[in-house]
Amino acid sequence: MAKVSVYNMEGSQVGEIELSDAVFGVKVNEHLVHMAVLQQLANNRQGTQKAKTRSEVSGGGRKPWRQKGTGHARQGSTRAPQWTGGGVVFAPTPRDYSFKLNKKEKQLALKSALTSRVAEEKIFVLDALKMDEVKTKKFQAVLDALKVNKALVVLEENDQNVILSARNIPNVKTAQTNTINVYDILKYDTLVITKDAVSKIEEVYA
């Protein structure tokens, strides 16, 4: 089991915690991590782009001039793609980009991402993260004490004081144990997580 230091909100080390190898010590599967990121980005795409083909633009019901004798190239419709105002060839249409990963694949990808953060020593475990009021300056002081700039902060519960205090800080995102994902873990340089959140994640994914 990997051992990591536990810090308080002032940035002082107050102990150590052993992380479960079943969650934080698995063999990193880079392919599944890549697929999990692709899935999240693809599932976030709206797929609402649209352009009209020649069958959808208005007009062009008759042949603009006779086939022969005018000196012009033959034309069948003013809505053909080469005409101004004509339809688009192979026009994009609304589509669904999403795809699915198996439950076990998603879990292994998440464990691989968490393991990589432990291996890179980019995880900070806090004994607790509580705030009496919504105060961005106080939350920034916690990050400064840990010497953290770009971080994903994982909480065990929906603590609105902490969430609202972190909301206006650039490069910081809060998440709960049931909303963490591979993309966010990799996007932010550091993972800041409470002891309670570690226990909850190990309970769910071990």
Automatic annotation (TrEMBL):
GO terms for cellular component: ribonucleoprotein complex; ribosome. The keyword Ribonucleoprotein applies. Residues 44-85 are annotated as: Disordered. GO terms for biological process: translation. InterPro entries: Ribosomal_uL4 (IPR002136), Ribosomal_uL4-like (IPR013005), Ribosomal_uL4_dom_sf (IPR023574). GO terms for molecular function: rRNA binding; structural constituent of ribosome. The keyword Ubl conjugation does not apply. Keywords: Ribonucleoprotein, Ribosomal protein, RNA-binding, rRNA-binding. Pfam families: Ribosomal_L4 (PF00573). SUPFAM superfamilies: Ribosomal protein L4. Forms part of the polypeptide exit tunnel. Part of the 50S ribosomal subunit. Belongs to the universal ribosomal protein uL4 family. HAMAP family: Ribosomal_uL4_B. This is Large ribosomal subunit protein uL4. The gene is rplD.
